[in-house]
């Protein structure tokens, strides 16, 4: 809170205004309305408003056109009357005789009045109550120019439209300025406009009804793929069956269904990996566990099953100290193998990429550290190392584990006093041994989980070391490969994307992690 603003003023500043409260209320209300209803309502409102606006625009346009046509007709007839009045003498009788042949409008209610600037009028035709010129009409007569239109409501309620036009001065009456007022009833025009308004209202109502039907249809057909996707999701959650759903079309909903199928495929693949991992782990665990149980049972028979050791001496199993030491050593070795297998299983259980932030790593340093570690475990071997710097962003622990597994595999298959060749150039790490090599049939499978060639099944190991190498490579965007070395042994390769020079601190700080 701001200590320089009192609590009441601060409460007023933080209190939302009416617009924010209304928007929040509408948002909360719409969040409880089904999507189908919202789409239907949106289509109805959009189409209905469009039809209503089109009807109103059409009505206004036609109404203005009719009124404009009426005014134009009035003006033409008034102008013709003014020309014929000018050609006659200044007498009402002559006007009336002249107007007998005048083609006046065919409206039933018409008033024709000639008047001068002194407001003296001569009614030439009258089927309406008398209409007197007003000031605007007299001004037209006085000026001899201009036009005056007006709407008039007579005493009997009749609505008329009038126009006043000036009469050009006659040589016989040079000092008199006159004008013609022509008025016509708008009854027929109003009837026409009324029918047009009724038609527009009916069209608007019909348009809103069509909009409602269109909204319902769009809501049903548009959300049908969503309904199928929802049913498929509920079916997967209920049964665990990961069969893909049928995809129809190429629109956004089809893309959503395709993405959902991709997710189901990935989930099925993950479940299959888990099942195979559990089955393979159970198979691999069975052998050391059986061996440990046999050895422990034998030791129990030797040392007795209880603390009092009451079994007759003649019935006890006798073994030499050397055999007993061998049994205990075998149990210890099986326990170490189980520990190694459990550790490898935990490592492989991380099927996804690591969530920890990647760190700058020099793969050359990682290789040297791994070689030092393996050299201590295999002092009878020599290592031929040629390592170039290679920098990348990744998990240094996982990379060191992968490189160590490659070196351990080479050390396991190398003969006594053999040489392990290690090369790192342009991100490609190659480890070659002088062992018997890998059979052609085994080359595609050496990096699979629990895969062990017939020759490797008699040697210690879990069959997971090279699988961990492949997983680390894939998590860092790299790949692995196996081949025969020129010396006849195995050649295993690990390639990781990166760069040969260390990036400047500013670039490395802003670089996007790739691991």
From TrEMBL:
Its EC number is 2.7.13.3. The keyword Plastid does not apply. Keywords: Kinase, Membrane, Phosphoprotein, Transferase, Transmembrane, Transmembrane helix, Two-component regulatory system. CDD domains: HAMP (cd06225), HATPase (cd00075), HisKA (cd00082). Gene3D superfamilies: 1.10.287.130, 6.10.340.10, Histidine kinase-like ATPase, C-terminal domain (3.30.565.10). It holds the Pfam family HisKA. GO terms for molecular function: kinase activity. Its main location: membrane. It catalyses: ATP + protein L-histidine = ADP + protein N-phospho-L-histidine. This is histidine kinase. The lineage of its organism: Bacteria, Bacillati, Actinomycetota, Actinomycetes, Catenulisporales.
């Amino acid at each position: 809170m701001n200590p320089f603003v009192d609590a009441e003023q601060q409460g007023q500043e933080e209190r939302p205004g009416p617009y924010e409260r209304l928007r929040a209320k509408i948002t909360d209300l719409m969040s409880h309305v089904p999507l189908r209803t919202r789409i239907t309502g949106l289509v109805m409102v959009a189409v209905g408003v469009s039809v209503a606006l089109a009807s109103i625009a059409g009505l206004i346009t036609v109404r203005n056109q009719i009124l404009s046509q009426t005014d134009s007709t009035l003006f033409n007839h008034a102008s013709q009357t003014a020309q014929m009045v000018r050609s006659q003498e200044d007498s009402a009788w002559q006007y009336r005789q002249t107007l007998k042949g005048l083609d006046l409008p065919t409206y039933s209610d018409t008033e024709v009045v000639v008047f001068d600037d002194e407001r003296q009028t001569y009614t030439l035709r009258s089927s309406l109550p008398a209409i007197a010129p007003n000031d605007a009409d007299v001004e037209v007569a006085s000026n001899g120019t201009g036009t005056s239109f007006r709407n008039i409501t007579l005493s009997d309620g009749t609505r008329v439209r009038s126009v006043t036009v000036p009469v050009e001065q006659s040589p016989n009456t040079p000092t008199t300025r006159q004008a013609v007022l022509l008025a016509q009833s708008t009854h027929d025009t109003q009837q026409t406009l009324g029918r047009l308004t009724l038609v527009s209202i009916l069209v608007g109502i019909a348009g809103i009804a069509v909009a409602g039907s269109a909204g319902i249809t769009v809501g049903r057909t548009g959300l049908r793929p969503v309904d199928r996707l929802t049913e498929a999701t509920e079916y997967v959650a209920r049964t665990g069956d990961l069969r893909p759903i049928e995809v129809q079309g190429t629109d956004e909903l089809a893309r959503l269904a395709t993405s959902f199928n991709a997710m189901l495929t990935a989930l099925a693949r993950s479940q299959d990996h888990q099942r195979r991992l559990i089955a393979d782990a159970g198979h691999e665990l069975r052998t050391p566990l059986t061996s440990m149980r046999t050895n422990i049972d034998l030791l129990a028979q030797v040392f007795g099953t209880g603390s009092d050791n009451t079994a007759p001496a003649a019935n006890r199993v006798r073994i030499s100290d050397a055999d007993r030491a061998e049994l205990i050593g075998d149990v210890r070795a099986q326990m170490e193998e189980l520990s190694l297998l459990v550790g490898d299983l935990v490592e492989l259980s991380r099927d996804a990429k690591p969530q920890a932030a990647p760190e700058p790593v020099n793969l050359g340093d990682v290789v040297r550290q791994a070689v030092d570690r393996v050299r201590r475990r295999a002092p009878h071997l020599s290592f031929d190392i040629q390592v170039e710097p290679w920098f990348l962003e990744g998990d240094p622990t996982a990379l060191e584990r992968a490189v160590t597994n490659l070196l351990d595999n080479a050390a396991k298959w190398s003969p006594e006093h053999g040489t392990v060749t290690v090369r790192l150039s342009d991100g490609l790490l190659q480890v070659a041994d002088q062992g018997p090599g890998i059979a052609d049939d085994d080359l595609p499978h050496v990096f699979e989980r629990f895969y062990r060639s017939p020759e490797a099944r008699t040697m210690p190991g879990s069959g997971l070391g090279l699988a961990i190498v492949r997983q680390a490579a894939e998590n860092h965007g790299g790949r692995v490969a196996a081949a025969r070395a020129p010396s006849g042994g195995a050649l295993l390769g690990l390639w990781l994307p990166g760069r040969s020079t260390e990036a400047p601190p500013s670039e490395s700080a802003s670089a996007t992690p790739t691991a």
